Amino acid sequence: MRLRYFLLAGALLALPARAQTVPALPATDQVRLEAIYRLTFRTDSTAPATRSDIMRLQIGSKMSRFESLNAVRGDSLVESAFKTAETQATGSGSNKTIDMGKIDIGAFRTSFREIIFKIPAAKQLVFRDRIGLGKFAYAEPLDRLAWTILPTTAAIAGYNCQRATTTYAGRHWEAWFTREVPVPEGPYKFYGLPGLIVKLADTGASYTYELARLRQLPAPVPMKVPEENAKSVSKAEFLAGKATDARAGLEQMLANGNIRFKTPEEETAFRQKARERAKRPTNPIELK
């Protein structure tokens, strides 16, 4: 497994820079509008059971940022744990490890680790995510969606909304947008309607985003821009790498001893659950 990870990450990292041009993110921006969406989704395409997550869309004057709030909170916990471990290691001379028993990661479980930036001036979006322990990014045209705006209207979440449809990555989508909030934004990669998307769902009932809260920030808040560099790759290369081994990064952390368990039985159970999850049918938001 470790060799497999290094072959995968090494192959992606060795790609020439010309393989994909990813626009640079604006160095700074201020969040002026924040939309919180509740995402209901099916992880198994063969079963009706659903899960949910809370997604955040931050809108500034130069770009927007979309991500899972659980990912944000979970990353904050892990970052704090790493800092604590680093401080303790510096003082004691021991190795830096994380005691998983002291981190309630389960409270912030998410299936979505990606961060999506939409940059209107560049007419592109930037998709950032991890493969194993590596950070990668690819770009897509912001205007790639062909929307059909229909006359149907409805009141949703307290807003007067209008229906629109489109097709993206193998799924047919129905959106309800409101002209009362005249920004061309929406969840995930969806963009380009004459108003904020209030509700978005695919016709197969696998993914549904519903606006839970919208607020105009009373004072400017800096939008967080990733400090670490991500390797630029094409979308096809990224998807191929992601599909090769979703567990590679976890296995590598286990092999390095960065994750510590209280007992051997706890580690065995953890690994068994990971193997079982890997065997389940998947239902990605993008089918092609």
Automatic annotation (TrEMBL):
UniProt cross-references to InterPro entries, sorted A to Z: GLPGLI (IPR005901)
Keyword Transcription regulation: no
Keyword terms of this UniProt record: Signal
Regions of compositional bias (Basic and acidic residues) in chain numbering: 262-275
Signal peptide: 1-19
Matching Pfam families: Porph_ging (PF09697)
Record-annotated membrane-spanning stretches: none
Spans annotated as Disordered: 261-288
Name of the protein described by the UniProt record: GLPGLI family protein
Species annotation: Hymenobacter cyanobacteriorum
